[in-house]
Structure to design on (742 residues):
């Protein structure tokens, strides 16, 4: 509400007074009918569970009977829970590797596939393919590729003269990079598509003007492409950040958090506590923490973006 | 403003839903007692999973119906992997069937503690039925076991002959087993490995917890596991057992390892007998001579009545049913605990909760089952302990041990360090 109040002065001249309330009412009504089907689904399947979650986070509940109110006990437990800390660090580690890598790779792909050339549709489809492939199939195949002794990746590395190639998903040190590589490969196509759309919206005149001014390709990229892509980059970064912190499926099927706890992430920890150990109150508390991490990071990104805009 | 109103309404609705959801589980007093009249009931429902490939529920239902033509047991299908999650949701929502199978013993405590199982102490169960203890809490029984698997040592007779090594004789300790695995690997020279232990934590921890006198999962004192891990790490290093990393990265299945003669031995549960027979029949597994021996023991003192492990599988009654249905369901469960039911299950290769002479005879009359003396001994004579103790902490401790399992076997930490780390976690997260 506060933002609305701040934004108000910037609004254009007030509409004519007559019929204003009726017209607004009608417009609002029409607006609501448009979003209602979606909103009902959202309310029933997302909003209500989320609100319930906030309540459950302050209780001890094993799925049956009464959820007992225990106040902040779950959150106090989080402070001393070593595995939760491991999961938190692992999630951060995943995000720090995954976000810049995916951004760079998908932008690179988009630039590459933004030229006019033969078979462009084919290449774009190929790049998008991993995104629509079943995650289980991806996990199985990449696990085989990463196999320490018989996998093609390590055989290739050994052929290059690396005597002691990493153990990938069987090594606590390399399992996270292995998962990140797989997820970058999987998601690059989707973000490439967003970047492609952004690239095609950049007016050609800007490039022509830059060329007239004598800018070479790299200068044109940094001074025309990057600034013009800012809205897209911002959107992609926000989505990527949220996705990275919520990562679950790939890790669940690829490493199941192992070896040891080396790839255990927050979402999986929530799943374990809730659905494997039936400790729904505590799982909800972890979920609340994850929610606030995502919310906090998104707000920070919005603020940073706003500052750049000015 | 309208937005505020709507958010407010949604929040109210949510709060109302939350409250109703939380009070849903209260009125579960239901059936119970002996007041119900089973003759008023003509259909009772039972939950099962993957009905097309898991015939045991239908077998029980049909065998019961044969003796009690007035009552039909109707099956309600659930997903095999998400069984417990779905069942918990259905019980909480009041839409679960009259009776449900306790697929995993480790979740029994959730149902029992949550008041989702009717007290079945008044059903008469003979002493022959294995696994009842696992479902007994403070003297009251909450489920009737119908099958009680046990882990054996499967071995490929052809590969043993090829290597010129004697078959297991039922007197093996784990050290004998490991030594033979290395000898086999050498003698078979690349045709097959000596043994295959699947990547599950139970292939190691199940035996250790059942056989080791110091074993106590709930204590969080797990030093006793260290020598068990050292033995298997040695087997891996010697190349007599497939590397843990190779198993997980290549999604290796135990059925293919033993079924296509990639390994000469394999510790595995009794359910594999029926699977292997079916796969040899369908061509998924090769044709070869095999048998199963009692699981190797910690020392020679227990070879008379070998100690092994496996959880029982039992059926409990949903306490939300009315008294009549409860009476009918109890009658069904009394049948489940009978030798007739056990024989019906043995006919399809299931290891029932009763393994007396009659049932043993039925089981070994299945075509293709190895009928040598040692296999019969392994089936009929053993002291089978549950894989996990029944406690609210079991699931959490098992998860910690599972992390240690993958860390040690992948070579990330030494057995001693891995177990020490797990013990620290158990202390700080569960027991402390």
């Amino acid at each position: 509400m506060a933002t609305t109040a701040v934004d108000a002065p910037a609004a254009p001249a007030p509409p004519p007074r007559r019929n204003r309330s009726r017209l607004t009412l009608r417009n609002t009504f029409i607006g609501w009918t448009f979003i209602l089907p979606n909103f009902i689904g959202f309310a029933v399947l997302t909003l209500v569970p989320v609100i319930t979650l906030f309540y459950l986070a302050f209780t001890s509940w094993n799925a049956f009977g009464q959820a007992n109110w225990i106040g902040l006990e779950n959150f106090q437990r989080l402070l001393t829970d070593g595995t939760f800390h491991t999961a938190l660090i692992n999630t951060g580690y995943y995000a720090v590797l995954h976000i810049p890598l995916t951004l760079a790779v998908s932008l690179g792909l988009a630039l590459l596939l933004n030229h006019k050339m033969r078979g462009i549709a084919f290449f774009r489809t190929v790049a998008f393919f991993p995104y629509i492939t079943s995650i289980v199939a991806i996990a199985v195949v990449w696990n085989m590729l990463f196999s320490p002794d018989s996998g093609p990746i390590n055989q290739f590395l050994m052929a290059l003269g690396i005597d002691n190639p990493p153990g990938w998903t069987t090594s606590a040190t390399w399992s996270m990079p292995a998962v990140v590589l797989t997820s970058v490969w999987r998601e690059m196509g989707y973000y490439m598509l967003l970047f492609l759309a952004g690239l095609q919206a950049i007016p050609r005149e800007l490039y022509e003007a830059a060329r007239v001014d004598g800018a070479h390709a790299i200068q044109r990229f940094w001074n025309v492409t990057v600034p013009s892509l800012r809205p897209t980059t911002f959107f992609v970064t926000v989505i990527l950040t949220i996705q990275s912190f919520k990562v679950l499926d790939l890790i669940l099927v690829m490493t199941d958090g192992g070896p040891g706890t080396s790839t255990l992430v927050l979402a999986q920890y929530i799943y374990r506590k809730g659905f494997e150990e039936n400790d729904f109150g505590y799982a909800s508390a972890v979920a609340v923490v994850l929610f606030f991490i995502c919310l906090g990071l998104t707000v920070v990104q919005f603020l940073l973006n706003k500052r750049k805009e000015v | 403003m309208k937005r505020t109103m709507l958010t407010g309404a949604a929040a109210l609705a949510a709060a109302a839903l939350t409250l109703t959801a939380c009070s849903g589980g209260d009125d579960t007093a239901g059936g119970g007692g002996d007041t119900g009249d089973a003759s008023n009931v003509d259909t009772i429902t039972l939950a099962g999973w993957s009905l097309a490939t898991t015939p045991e529920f239908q077998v029980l239902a049909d065998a019961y119906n044969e003796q009690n033509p007035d009552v039909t047991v109707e099956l309600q299908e659930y997903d095999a992997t998400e069984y417990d999650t779905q069942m918990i949701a259905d019980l909480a929502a009041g839409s679960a069937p009259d009776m449900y199978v306790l697929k995993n013993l480790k979740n029994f405590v959730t149902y029992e503690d949550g008041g989702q199982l009717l007290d079945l102490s008044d059903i008469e169960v003979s002493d022959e039925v294995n696994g009842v203890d696992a479902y007994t809490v403070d003297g009251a029984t909450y489920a009737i076991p119908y099958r009680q698997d046990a882990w054996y040592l499967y071995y490929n007779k052809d590969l043993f002959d090829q290597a010129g090594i004697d078959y297991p004789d039922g007197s093996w300790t784990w050290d004998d087993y490991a030594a033979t695995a290395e000898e086999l690997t050498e003698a078979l020279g690349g045709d097959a490995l000596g043994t295959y232990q699947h990547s599950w934590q139970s292939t190691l921890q199940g035996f250790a917890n059942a056989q080791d006198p110091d074993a106590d999962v709930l204590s969080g004192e797990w030093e006793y596991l260290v020598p068990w891990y050292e033995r298997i790490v040695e087997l891996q290093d010697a190349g007599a057992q497939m590397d843990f990393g190779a198993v997980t990265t290549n999604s290796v299945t135990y059925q293919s390892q033993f079924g296509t003669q990639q390994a000469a031995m394999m510790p595995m549960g009794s359910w594999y007998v029926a699977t292997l027979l079916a796969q040899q029949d369908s061509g998924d597994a090769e044709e070869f001579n095999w048998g199963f021996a009692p699981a190797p023991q910690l020392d020679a003192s227990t070879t008379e009545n070998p100690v092994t492990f496996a959880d029982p599988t039992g059926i409990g009654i949903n306490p939300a049913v009315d008294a009549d249905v409860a009476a009918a369901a109890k009658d069904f469960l009394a049948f489940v605990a009978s030798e007739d039911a056990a024989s019906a299950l043995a006919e399809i290769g299931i290891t029932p909760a009763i393994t007396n002479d009659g049932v043993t005879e039925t089981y070994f009359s299945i075509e293709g089952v190895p009928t040598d003396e040692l296999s019969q001994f392994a089936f009929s004579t053993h002291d089978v302990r549950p894989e996990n103790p029944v406690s609210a902490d079991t699931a959490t401790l098992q998860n910690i041990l599972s992390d240690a399992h993958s860390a040690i076997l992948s070579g990330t930490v030494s057995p001693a360090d891995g177990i020490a780390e797990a013990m620290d976690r158990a202390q700080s997260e569960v027991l402390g």
User: Anything to note?
Assistant: The mean pLDDT of chain B is 88. Chain B is about 45% helix and 15% strand.
